[in-house]
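User: My collaborator and I are trying to settle a disagreement about how two of our proteins should look. Neither of us wants to argue from intuition anymore, so we agreed to look at predicted structures for both before our next call. Could you fold the first one, then the second, and keep them clearly separated?

Assistant: That sounds like a sensible way to settle it. I'll keep them separate. The first protein:
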Amino acid sequence: MKGRRYIMHLDGDAFFVSVEAAKDPRLRGRPVVTGQERGIASAMSYEAKALGITRAMPIFQIRRQFPQVAVVDSDYESYAVFSKRMMDIVRRYTDVVEEYSIDECFADFTDVPGFKKDPLPVLSRLKGEIGKELGISVSLGLASTKSLAKMASKSKKPDGLTIVCPEDVTSLLGKTPVDKVWGIGSATAISLRKKGITTALDLASKPAAWVSESFSKPLEEMHLELNGVSVHPVATGSEPQRSIMKTRTFFPASDDSSYVFSELSKNLEGACRRARELGLYAKDVSVYLKTKDLSYANASRKLSLPSNGSFQIVREAKKAFDEIFERGRLYRATGAILCGLVPEEAVQEDLFGGARAAEKGGKVLEAVDRINKKYGKSLVHMASSSRSLHRERRREKKALFMPRGSSKRLSVPYLGEAR
């Protein structure tokens, strides 16, 4: 088919648990559950799922019913690092990559020389590199649209590789229940079933006019995608950025104002560093705090002058933090968002020389960025971030390990920076 695209969907297999097994090979092949720190199951290995363990099942119940299960703390820092490294491996093959979630991405191989002639060796090599370098498995699906590619990767898990040629589409659609189609929620699935549509093939076989009359635009687009018409391109993130967000969950939860702000300060420094890399300046800064019982509080401050300087932004964010922090409450996550981003040329100097003063601070930060880039992220940092960074470095030391029975050393921190 002329104009056919070659879109791959990559899906990590039980990603969080796979990372834990890569860190500790003794966990391979065993039923494993993460979430010990929360008291409920967050992620399960396939072996644990086979026992009937489900997400949010209480840990005490798992230990009582399934004593053979290994229960471990969630290590979100390592998950983010493995995710970044996985995405970097995909980018060895194509620059057109959309990071859809921490364990999923789409990639467009349409313009990769020689790929259309025989995609199997390329995708097999990609899978092999991820397995060899990271010690985890992924499932891949290749099709002409994002919707079909995602359906393909889900059709053969774990460790699957499914290439959907035009003649294979009907079979794939017929095996997929309509409520398992990406983007179709439970309410829409109920409406579709009432109209006799139970599989993806039933939906794809309907006339476009009927879909348009009966449902809204998103389902019209889904109908096209199921019929091989690519409506949703792989989004590389090259479009203008409106905001930058950095978040972090920490354990154990804390009611220590100084420590919680240290976590927020680290997020703010990361967001500001990213803004400087992109040459963008923020007009506003928003912060939020997440409590142990999963409630949120947030506050925003408008900056007197657009800025990407850590000093100015952390100072304003501290005022917002003081508005929402409640003594005696346990907090488990912080988030920082730089909003109203504008390029440097849009930043106008104010009448009182504020821009000139900010420029002097900017030169200091340029030097800091150069040092950190050369010698390691956050080697030079604000004092307000110290407690968070101290704890992070302790965790990174735990991530350095030598797998038993192997001469291959895996050094998690050097897999890359989680962004």
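The second protein, kept apart from the first:
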Amino acid sequence: MKFLSFFLSFIVKIFNRISCVIMRSRFRECGSGCLFFSVNSHFSYATISLGKDVYIGPNANFSSAEETITIGDKVMFGPDVMIIGGDHNISQLGKYMHDVKEKLPQNDAPIVICDDVWVGARSIILKGVTLGEGCVVAAGSIVTKSVPPYAIVKGSPAVVYKYRFTKEEIEIHRKMIQNQKS
């Protein structure tokens, strides 16, 4: 039984790697070293740009009809994360919301996720949000407003809980990271 479980797990991993290689060209941009689970996830590929070394956990839903979702380098997403880049137009009189196809400019807004961000499992990122460099979004959070660099946010709606580093440590961290890039 253990062998069967191991074998099936191995097959799923190989299938995911192959589908990842095939699907990466569908993204607007996709840097090297990205790993995502296209089989059990939904992406609006044409509006999404991925940096280098991005990991997107299983069951992701990254969706934006018109605006872009830009994801920096070395970003990690836990399982079941949703990024929603827009709303439905709900302001038309005399029509069912389902039948309204026209979007208003305020219905969509770009989402930017900077480098070195970690988004925990089952978090939701809504339109118009920027997640600053090095920030952390705790599992299950709903992010409705932009997050400052190196902040740790949690809750619904997400609020700053604390910062990863002091201001002095942030400068040291940035210099060390920059040296790694050189």
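Some points you might bring to the call about the second protein. Residues 11 and 17 are 10 Å apart (CA to CA). The longest helix spans residues 2-23.
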